[in-house]
Design a protein that fits this description.
By secondary structure, chain A is of the alpha/beta class. Chain A is 37% helix and 26% strand. Chain A starts with a strand and ends with a helix.
Chain lengths: 401, 401
């Protein structure tokens, strides 16, 4: 029939039983006449266990050695999955990142894929073997093993699908697909049958936790058709592809992201170039910034607030505090107890009423809005973390039920 | 000063504390001005844990996938040791087998090293970096990861020392060196300061459990000076090298090997070529044979006995039984409850009294001898396993105290 790339995450291969389950899915697809390439992540807690081993010895190891260590996690998974497929009696071969031809840049811990030399994979597929590839890894120009960082295995799968010209790249996870909101606390949430790359991009970056941004960007760039499915049942998942814009839903989904922290710089001197000064300092220190709000200055002073991840908070505070006199900031306030709640939908930009309707939903639920930011296809608000789930439910029910 | 290759086994790096201990040893050697290349095995029980993971999924996986799995054990060790050395503030780089240039034949699970392209290692040494290499592994002509089988890490270390022209190859273990007998049950046993390759070869193959045969053979071939040392103290170890034969001790050590089984073929037809027939059958089936005894035939019948490892016993019996009529054997007897006790020493061949003295020691201890075999530098006897330790003590005290 065709060529299918499948990707299974860590929970899908967390123990022997789950590995056998994945093996059956893979061989089912193979038996239908497809060539199958499978990308796997490290088993369940393996990565955490390896990190723990490292921390016991050296709390700040070089990224190179960390990559050397962590890449073993996927190598264990691929061999175990290959053994499971052998047990079912099918021809199979496993490959590490370098064996599969993944060449990357030299950024240990967060490498980007430069190219994939898929000769060996194509060779094995020609022999009708199932090919199992270690996700999340490749080698750089020094022949050092590097990992691709967050969302790496999804990215490996999509990149392979692009290079091999696969008919579909199936991303298996423990949920049924992409939902209009998190079904764990939004009872009325439902699964989407399809969604556009751009919408998925916003949902991914907003904490929907299904697909990583990077892999969606790559899929969009190379027009790889994605299917997000559950590895635990045979339900139809969600297709991510170019979606016809006619008659589409305005709002696709509502998301919440608890991993954010707010920093407010109060009483900043109101002179031109102040924002540039602040954010280039943060950028130089490798601190990612998400929402930014600047109050209208009174000619003497203004307030500038921004959000970052919780992991970057301490460093951001340190940088701001260390440059207090240069920046001429009177006071620095911060909070971790905030969440970002967002609605996403490609049609949103042309619908002036969307933002108003969202704020109305929050007002009716008595939820205070700390910050607001809008883009072409999303509107995000920062709320107190304790209000976040209620905010998602209120907005979801206003737009999507 | 020079170039030192050090090899640390699994128990030497079994936990964080031991890894730090090894890191300190390595950096001590480095600080004395030496270039240092370190070969490490997988941590303590890692290999067993990985095998267990595999068995849960597939009790008879392909050797290729098993090698893919097991090779992660050493990759974990090298990165952890590198991190420990980083913590001590020294420049270090870890390398997998393929990164270190180990090319092997294609025998998965028991590959032999074809060549080592040491360019990268030499490059790193030129930069005064400590180089940590994963033992026990390499890649074959398909670029598949293979393991070297038993004694693989020792072999990796010796091969590297040969290729790099190292001044010494230090093999670290949990004993102080090579002893005249097993100090766990021979109270009078003592450590040897030096021993020849040939003597070490006999001791290694006779169950002294310090160095694997293969690595000693390789060291002999390329004249690599070996030092067997403890990773737990700073005692001088035992040097294995070409030893001047003048005034040497006649007997170097006494060993015991419990991993043997005896098969006796009784009432074999006494015709020429019978032994050839039997042992070529065993060889074709991959069964290793150690001691061989043939009774003097009476023209009609003779008895042929041989020993093999316990692991090969069942297969050997199967082969013998399946060819009973061809071989014309009346009865097949076997026992696992036997041990091989041997004395080793290069001077032995010229000392007619050695065998007699050994048998006297056993006679005095009331120990029955089942089989006897002699070579240029050893005499082995097969005794009941229950008598083996007493036999070693008796012989040791006769010759070496």
């Amino acid at each position: 029939m065709g060529l299918v790339v499948q990707k299974y995450g860590g929970t899908s291969v967390k123990d022997a039983e789950r590995v056998m389950n994945v093996a059956r899915r893979v061989t089912d697809t193979y038996q239908k006449g497809n060539n199958v390439v499978v990308v796997v992540s490290a088993q369940g807690d393996t990565t955490d266990e390896l990190i723990e081993k490292a921390m016991e010895i050296n709390p700040s190891p070089s990224k190179r050695e960390m990559d050397m260590l962590l890449s073993t996690g996927e190598q264990i998974s691929i061999s175990l999955l290959a053994m499971a497929i052998e047990k079912l009696g099918f021809p199979v071969v496993s490959m590490t990142g370098w064996q599969a031809g993944f060449r990357t840049d030299s950024t240990y811990g967060a490498a980007r894929i430069h190219e994939i030399n898929a000769d060996r994979i194509e060779n094995e597929l020609d022999k009708r073997r199932i090919v199992i590839v270690a996700g999340f890894q490749g080698i750089n120009k020094y022949d050092d093993i590097v990992t691709l960082g967050r969302g790496g295995s999804d990215t490996s799968a999509v990149a392979l699908a692009a290079v091999l010209g696969a008919d579909v790249c199936e991303i298996y996870t423990d949920v049924d697909g992409v939902f209009t909101a998190d079904p764990r606390f939004v009872k009325t949430a439902y699964k989407l049958d399809e969604i556009s790359y751009d919408e998925m991009l916003e949902l991914a970056s907003l904490g929907a936790n299904v697909l990583h941004n990077r892999s969606v960007e790559l899929a969009k760039k190379y027009n790889v058709k994605l299917a997000v499915k559950s590895s635990l049942n045979n339900n139809e998942g969600t297709y991510v592809k170019e979606v016809d814009q006619v008659e589409k839903m305005i709002v696709r989904g509502v998301t919440r992201d608890n991993d954010c922290a707010r920093i407010a710089l109060c009483g900043v001197e109101d002179t031109p170039g102040k924002a540039f000064q602040i954010f280039s300092l943060l950028s130089k220190n490798g601190i990612g910034v998400d929402l930014i709000i600047q109050s209208i200055g009174n000619g003497t002073q203004k307030d500038i607030s921004f959000t970052t991840t919780e992991g970057d908070l301490d460093k951001a505070l340190e940088v701001m505090d260390g440059n207090r006199s240069v920046l001429k900031v009177q006071d620095i306030k911060w909070s971790k107890d905030v969440s970002k709640v967002s609605i996403v939908g490609a049609g949103m930009v042309n619908n002036v009423g969307v933002a108003a309707k969202m704020f109305e939903a929050l007002y009716n639920a008595h939820i205070n809005i700390n910050m607001i930011a809008t883009s072409e296809i999303k509107i995000s608000v920062l709320v107190d973390q304790k209000d976040a789930e209620r905010a998602v439910v209120a907005i979801h029910d206003k737009f999507l039920v």
